[in-house]
Amino acid sequence: MKEQVFTVIKRDRVLFAIALILSILITGWYLYIHSFDLNTTERIRQLWGSMYQVMAIFGCIIGFRASKKWSGYKSIIGNAILFFSIGLLLQSFGQSVDSYYNFFQNQAIPYPSMGDIGFFGSVIAYIVGAGYLLKATGFQFIVKSMRKKLLVVIVPLIVLISCYLFFLQGYTFDWSNKIKILLDFGYPLGQAIYVSIALIAYLISRNYNLGAMKWPLLFLLIALAFQYFADFTFLYQANANTWYVGGLNDYLYFISYFSMTLALLYMGGVRRILPEL
Predict the structure, then answer these.
(1) Would you call 241 exposed, middle or buried from its count of C-beta atoms within 10 A (0-12, 13-18, 19+)?
(2) CA proximity to 113, closest of 97, 131, 130, 125
(3) What is the per-residue pLDDT for 230?
(4) pLDDT tens across 170-220, in order?
(5) Is residue 1 part of a domain?
(6) For residue 154, what are the domain limits?
(7) 137: closest CA among 207, 68, 186?
(8) Structurally, how many domains does the chain consist of?
(9) Peptide bond preceding 110: is omega within 30 degrees of 0, i.e. cis?
(10) 277 in a domain, yes or no?
(11) Among 20, 98, 12, 112, which residue's Cα sits nearest to residue 62?
């Protein structure tokens, strides 16, 4: 396999500063809200739950900008960045739909809802993006290794089994709502796939001279892991009727958006030395 080499170019400090300031403001708002009784801050929590998606939108813009630097769909990494950006956009769509129910209609968010088109669509987009990143590591050239074959099988299996043990143990099937069952099991399966692919890509990258790409891959892995925990926390709380807007679950989503934004920002500040990616 021909070694892939990357180097750091000048990063956009302004965009990084904006992302950091946004994260501080949104986190500060979250902590302020939760310093009071939940019953007295319901409307403010609904507003916060509608507004923190600004980080996802900002990250999406950064991602499209970074993808363009990598020649967009014409390059492997450009495609990876593009699909992760689309994933953020779909997350924002899903949250906007749910916010409409919660903030403007002042009613509980239905599950499933139209918002799940965006949420589940983001799972598919992340799988495709992670697949492109795995391809960029040169995985297709080293898959003949028995150790890597075991990695491909074992990592997704561990993630999936852990998910069901912690979140779906004792699950009650309601066959009158088949879409809900499909989503309850489709989310874990899809997320186990993209987290596993990203983890394999990161582990493989450590064996090659990917240089500055290691940091974007690490932030990306953190983002997908938080997305994973956020989605399963929602599934668990929704099935237990303990979910409420503006809670820890929403903050986990925000952390995933922020981490993804940093990953895309880092990718925009890296360039390839070899042209084939």
Answers:
(1) exposed
(2) 97
(3) 86
(4) 667 777 778 888 887 788 788 888 888 888 887 776 655 455 567 778 888
(5) no
(6) 6-272
(7) 207
(8) 1
(9) no
(10) no
(11) 12
